[in-house]
């Protein structure tokens, strides 16, 4: 999920999230519009049914007026059938809604008729008579002609003055399939794909076009299967080919005594929701364009307002982390929150720079103080060494000569002592010789500790061998000096390495618990290296850097005073190893002398 870790991407997500309610509102609005479209189609079918009922009422009223006029003419003329025929032909010529006229007795026998088209369904008049009786003043009866498959209304009026018990009826058959021509109005009347049909309980009676009958029949059956009863209903159904339709059915509340007529209005789903889908598409496009534009603006402005300044701050922070404390944000003039952050950053950088400068000045002062102390230490060390050298020479020259003279005098006394009591005198003289020998040995030892003359006379290598022999005599610890080179060194370098060697032996005797010590001295072109290794318990790493380790500290200072290095630590094979490296002046470095350390 590193993609979402970017501040710019998060800003885009926030902008996109701001448009989510708009998208949800649009989706909800589309659903509401689709429901409104369904309700409009249902309302259109109801309006069509009402228009069909009004049209039917108008046709019935006009037919009743025509029949009453014909009834008066037929009743007043002895040639009633001829008069009826003439009037019927005139009526059918003036209007194409009439299928035929006729005169039928109360028993159902056709007395005369005028037929527009051959219609075998006239025989059903007997059934009509039986169902409606003979006492009706007016009868309106719906039937479907089995010969021409047209829905029709039979409108009958009694003939004669005795209307309560008429002997015959004058009737007219009206083609009601033409109700579909004038009932549908509005936008669906202009859509050729719209299916509009007159239906009854057995199926569709007539449609807008002849080819829509089968489709209307299938849709009507589907509506019935989906539970749409006699009441108005709207459904989304599929025809046999799989196409979706928005189908509405509404009853026609007319005056026919047995009719169950209704209208069926079916619109292809894509036509029904065309406006809704177009509005949805437009809305989606608008929101998509606005969202994309907002994201682009957020990307560009976010980069200029947030991303670029923050990148500068991050870069400046990285430069500060790398040690460049002079860097600044260059955004302190901004007046927004980033400006506050930039000013705080600059103040922090300035404080760090000042603190670093103070720290550098303090370090320089400490360094200069260390140099002065080191020079002072070197000077004091030189003074001490010179003083020790002078003391050693004075002790050797003065006290040594005195003790030597006393020994000579004592020897003379021994030779010239009288023979009386010789044993006591000789015993006392022997004790005096012993004291003189001890004093002279102490003088030699003190002179060697203060300033070994062998270092000045024979050089560093011989001084190390002499000191190793003395160490072995004093402690019993074997000291191997086969790795000691015999090259000459400058006096100050030789003295520093000898003192480091002396202190190393002192530490071995005090702390190591060792049985053997190996010493190596190597003089190369530009460096002298002294190593002292024991086989003892090994130095503690913390003790090596402890402030109380004065011996190690003095060795380290001696090496540092001449620009060298010092190291003390555990050897991988056990024990402790001490190493001192001193750079040699170019003029003092002679041939390279390298001697491998013994036993390594």
From TrEMBL:
Residues 352-386 form a coiled coil. Its EC number is 2.7.13.3. Keywords: ATP-binding, Coiled coil, Kinase, Membrane, Nucleotide-binding, Phosphoprotein, Transferase, Transmembrane, Transmembrane helix, Two-component regulatory system. Its main location: membrane. Residues 304-357 form the HAMP domain. It is found in: Membrane. One of its GO terms (molecular function) is ATP binding. GO terms for cellular component: membrane. Residues 497-586 form the Histidine kinase domain. The chain crosses the membrane at residues 12-32, 284-307. It catalyses: ATP + protein L-histidine = ADP + protein N-phospho-L-histidine. It is an enzyme of class 2 (transferase). The keyword Plastid does not apply. Signal peptide: none annotated. PANTHER family: NITRATE/NITRITE SENSOR PROTEIN NARX-RELATED (PTHR24421), NITRATE_NITRITE SENSOR PROTEIN NARQ (PTHR24421:SF10). This is histidine kinase.
């Amino acid at each position: 999920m590193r993609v979402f870790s970017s501040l710019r991407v998060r800003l885009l997500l926030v902008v996109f999230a701001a448009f989510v309610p708009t998208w949800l509102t649009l989706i909800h609005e589309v659903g509401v519009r689709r429901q409104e479209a369904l309700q409009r189609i249902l309302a259109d079918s109801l309006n069509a049914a009402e228009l069909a009922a009004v049209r039917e009422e108008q046709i019935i009223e006009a037919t009743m007026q025509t029949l009453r006029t014909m009834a008066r003419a037929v009743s007043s003329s002895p040639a009633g059938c001829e008069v009826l025929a003439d009037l019927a032909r005139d009526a059918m010529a003036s209007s194409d809604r009439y299928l035929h006229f006729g005169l039928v007795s109360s028993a159902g026998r056709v007395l005369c008729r005028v037929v527009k088209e051959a219609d075998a369904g006239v025989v059903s008049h007997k059934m009509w008579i039986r169902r409606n009786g003979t006492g009706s003043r007016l009868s309106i009866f719906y039937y479907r002609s089995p010969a021409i498959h047209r829905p029709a209304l039979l409108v009958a009026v009694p003939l004669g003055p005795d209307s309560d018990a008429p002997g015959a009826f004058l009737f007219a058959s009206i083609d009601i399939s033409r109700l579909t021509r004038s009932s549908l109005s509005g936008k669906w009347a202009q859509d050729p794909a719209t299916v509009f049909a007159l239906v009854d309980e057995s199926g569709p009676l007539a449609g807008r076009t002849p080819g829509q009958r089968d489709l209307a029949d299938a849709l009507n059956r589907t509506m019935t299967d989906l539970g749409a009863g006699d009441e108005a209903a709207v459904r989304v159904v599929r025809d046999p080919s799989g196409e979706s339709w928005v189908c509405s059915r509404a009853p026609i509340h007319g005056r026919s005594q047995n009719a169950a007529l209704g209208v069926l209005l079916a619109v292809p789903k894509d036509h029904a929701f065309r406006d809704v889908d177009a509005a949805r598409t437009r809305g989606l496009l608008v929101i998509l364009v606005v969202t994309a534009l907002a994201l682009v603006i957020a990307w560009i402005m976010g980069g200029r307002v947030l991303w670029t300044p923050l990148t500068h701050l991050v870069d400046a922070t990285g430069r500060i982390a790398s040690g460049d404390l002079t860097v600044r944000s260059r955004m302190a003039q901004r007046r927004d929150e980033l400006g506050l952050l930039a000013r705080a950053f600059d103040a922090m950088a300035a404080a760090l720079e000042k603190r670093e400068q103070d720290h550098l000045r303090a370090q320089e002062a400490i360094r200069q103080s260390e140099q002065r102390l080191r020079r002072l230490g070197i000077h004091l060390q030189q003074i001490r060494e010179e003083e020790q050298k002078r003391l050693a020479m004075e002790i050797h020259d003065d006290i040594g000569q005195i003790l030597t003279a006393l020994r000579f005098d004592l020897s003379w006394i021994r030779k010239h002592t009288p023979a009386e009591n010789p044993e006591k005198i000789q015993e006392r003289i022997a004790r005096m010789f012993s004291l003189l020998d001890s004093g002279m040995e102490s003088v030699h030892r003190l002179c060697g500790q203060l300033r070994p003359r062998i270092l000045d006379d024979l050089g560093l290598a011989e001084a190390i061998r002499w000191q190793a022999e003395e160490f072995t005599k004093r402690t019993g610890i074997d000291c191997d000096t086969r790795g000691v080179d015999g090259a000459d060194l400058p006096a100050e370098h030789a003295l520093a390495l000898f003192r480091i060697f002396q202190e190393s032996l002192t530490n071995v005797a005090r702390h190591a618990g060792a049985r053997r010590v190996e010493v190596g001295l190597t003089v190369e072109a530009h460096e002298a290296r002294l190593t002292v290794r024991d086989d003892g318990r090994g130095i503690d790493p913390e003790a090596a850097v402890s402030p109380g380790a004065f011996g190690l500290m003095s060795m380290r200072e001696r090496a540092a005073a001449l620009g060298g290095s010092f190291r003390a630590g555990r050897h991988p094979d056990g024990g402790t190893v001490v190493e001192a490296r001193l750079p040699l002046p170019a003029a003092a470095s002679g041939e390279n002398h390298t001697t491998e350390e013994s036993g390594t």
